[in-house]
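Provenance and format

Records in this collection were gathered into a single text stream. Each protein contributes a sequence line and a token line. The two records reproduced below are adjacent in the stream.
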Amino acid sequence: MLPILLLYKPSCNSELYFEYDDLEELQSKLKKEKVEFIHEMREQPWRQRVLRIYDPSKNIIEVGESLEYLSYRL
């Protein structure tokens, strides 16, 4: 019988989204914890800043600044 971990293949076919206004602080904390980034903070065409990471099960998590904070920042 194969161990369950050999049977599990991450699908990465969904994404969770969260908002956090101080993305620079969050990115720094995530780097210290050695979290795997899909991409570091970047600015979208509509000027919202976002970053994407993998959770331990390889699910995609996107964190973006709230649009309220974006309007304050601009």
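Adjacent record:
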Amino acid sequence: MNPSPPAETLTLAIDPSLLEHVRERLAQRHRNTPPEELVAALVTTILDNSGYPISATRTDAGKIRIRYRLRSFSEPIL
């Protein structure tokens, strides 16, 4: 089995207004979860369930690994 090449890093800038909204909603629900983790979970869900040939998994708090995964129903990326 061939090892995968090193992963490239992409930084996602999150608007402070989204983080503040998530922080307020978490406080209302008395959850002690960092807002960045919840936003990472949201982005992972959106990417992993899209029609594109992409799989997304959370690796650490606030980190997401995105891979190419061809599926029978996939839309072309380009």
